[in-house]
Task: structure prediction
Amino acid sequence: MCGIVGVSGRADACEVLVEGLRRLEYRGYDSAGVCGAGLDGAMAGERAAGKVSALAAKLAARGGLAGMSGIAHTRWATHGAAEERNAHPHRAGRVALVHNGIIENHAALKAELMAAGRTFQSDTDSEVVAHLFDAALDVHADPHDAWRAVVGRLQGAFALAAVSESAPGLVFGARKAAPLLAALGNGTGYIASDAMALPEDAATIIYLEDGDTVVAGPGSADVRDAQGRPAQRKQAAGPGVFGRVDKGPFRHFMEKEIHEQPEVVGRTLAAYLDLAGGAVNLPAAVDFAAMNRLLIVGCGTAAYAGMVARYWFESLAGLPTEVDIASEFRYRDPAFAKGDAALFISQSGETADTLEALRLCKAAGLITIALTNTPHSTMAREADIVLPTLAGPEIGVASTKAFTCQLAALAVAAGAQRERMDAQAVQAAIADLSAAPRLMGEALNLRQGVDALALDLARSDIVLFLGRNSLYPLALEGALKLKEISYIHAEGYAAGELKHGPIALIEEGVAVIVLAPMDALFDKTRSSIEQVRARGARVIAVADPEAAAALDGQSALTFVTPAAGRLAAPIVMAVAVQLIAYLTAVHKGTDVDQPRNLAKSVTVE
Ligand code: F6R
Result:
């Protein structure tokens, strides 16, 4: 989603800003812009629709931008088309401003500003804030007071950064229900929506809280709370040079992240399992034994991880579990009962709907647990308990390694404390899970075979995924992965649901990918295969060796994944569906790491 960078106090401010935008590209965006300000306050900017490379080319053509401070932005269109005139920064008089989020009262503010004679150049809600700041600078002698007065008038969710000719060298920031941090290093002050945007010398990160404003100067950051009082906020070391991620020998971040999975799933498991002692190490505060019901909430892939976990929590732990997508949960007036606890799954820890669902549950008095890949995220800070996943930075917009790490952590959590399993069953579950990293490594060998299939799938108009039990959510995930990066219409269904409607989609040659492990429901899965095959479907099975042998001749193509226990099976088969999506997208030639219209971290509704 939109990205913000601000810098104060560097002779190469504009280069640092554009480099910061490049590092934010993974978040997804459709236009970019930068504005530099000199020591005398004089400002100059450039904007471009499309990629940061288009902006960089425009800057190169004009010999770069001078300036010791400035702001920059990647925009993911909400109000107004993805055109240059809607790209940020927006200029109004002495002010340039960038904004992430939505200003809900923008129409009323715009009417007021127009009545005062101000004219607007864009269709965005953001431009009103630039005008408000420009107008406030006439009224308030201290620019920080002017800034706070503006922020106090805004409704909605926003992260903002601004510079002004009347306050040379300063960068103004504000945060409400959208991520923004400040950072310091080497005589420079920074503002960013994501630590990834910061250069190596940003040694100290300051995590702003909702309602905060900040004014960054060379080597300083004046943070105030919503009442205007100086505020001390949580600090952490900056990402430094070791925080940088590159593609290594891979063509795409997604490809690299798929291949990293054996390692990062192993690392996540090791954080929760004492393999030598055969014991589970959950944070002391987590007490699944005390819960009467577990509510799991997330969006997209994270919600699918929760759906897989529901099978585990209910069957292994006997813990009644409900899973909901955050955007529905938060608005459906959910009913709570004594002993409810809520688990929020989020790679970024910043997804707006999931965060608001967490706040809703916290306000209702529930214990809140965040399972997140981003330890300093808002969810990690606000939840009662944090369960980290150790996937490392995930750059590809389509989630892969974060998903399998979520599954690994959830599998450990399920049943860990409910004493439903005897010691032997616990040891068997630990052995089942511990094998997952090795088996994922073996599943990566499917790549060559999948590549041949992907060439065919790339020409398909529709692809269906079927699964049962804990493989049903993986069918949904497989379809989501394929549609988001290859733009092929893909749907996932519970295999048993086929006859209740989806089978009407089957005609000669339609590709149906069936997740078919040799489990208690194998015969039912096989009968679903027969039903679609009888209607002309081209069945592609993802099966363990025993199931593959049993399916002999029933599928047009079978990818044999290594034999895995019930906990490891969805984690291992995830590799197969990820490879199918990835290689199909490569054959289609799409922008795999930054697919159209998508954002990595959905921080607005
Ligand atoms: C799909 C994908 C999304 C995210 C969803 C939640 O590949 O990545 O569906 O899973 O936007 O994001 P987080 O986990 O950051 O809350």
Observations:
- Residues 439-590 form a domain with the Rossmann fold fold (CATH 3.40.50.10490).
